[in-house]
Amino acid sequence: MSAPKLGTDALLALLADPPAWFRASAAVLLVVLMVGLFYGGAQPCAAGLIPPPWDKLVHMACFGGMAGLAWVSLGGSGPIAGLGAIAAALGIGVIDEAAQALLPGRSSDASDLAADFVGAAVIVCLLWVAANAFRTRPRSARCRQRSGRS
Question: What would the pLDDT profile of 97-129 be if each residue is shown by its tens digit?
Fold first, then answer.
């Protein structure tokens, strides 16, 4: 007996309508990443760890990832998930920049916050497009693809 294929449809289904266990897992992972961000950012070695302009790419990737996790945690559909995910990532970014202003050797930078927003917005837009493409595709096409028929 072969194992079931976990392809694009399975992934899109998880993103379009995440089950409770997946939403909870995403929320836990988001909290773990936040703790890592704040703890790691408070370490003396964090100052100047990633030189410009690469630091902005890291900001976009980190906060895009956090927005993606927030999207899933919030249900993966509708304006609440999209706007809530961007707001969550931006809120974490504001707290992070405020904390950096208080740490020796660190500084707060509005361009970091802008990179946080861009990363979050891009990921939420991509997730929204992917989830809506899955939802609007006829169910019969999804079933045929899953069963291996053309």
Answer: 999 999 888 888 899 999 999 999 999 999 999
Is 98 inside a domain boundary?
yes
Q: What's the token pair of residue 52?
A: 């410009």
**Domain annotation covers residue 130:** yes
C-alpha 124/C-alpha 94 separation (Å) is 18
Quick check: 124 and 86 in contact, CB under 8 A?
yes
Contact present, 81 and 75 (Cβ < 8 Å): yes
* Run of H or E residues at 49: none
pTM over 0.85: no
- The count of structural domains within the chain is 1
Q: Is residue 1 part of a domain?
A: no
pLDDT at 17: 86
> Is residue 64 a part of any domain in this protein?
yes
Please state, in angstroms and rounded to a whole number, the distance separating the CA atoms of residues 61 and 5. Answer: 29
Q: Is the pLDDT of residue 145 over 80?
A: no
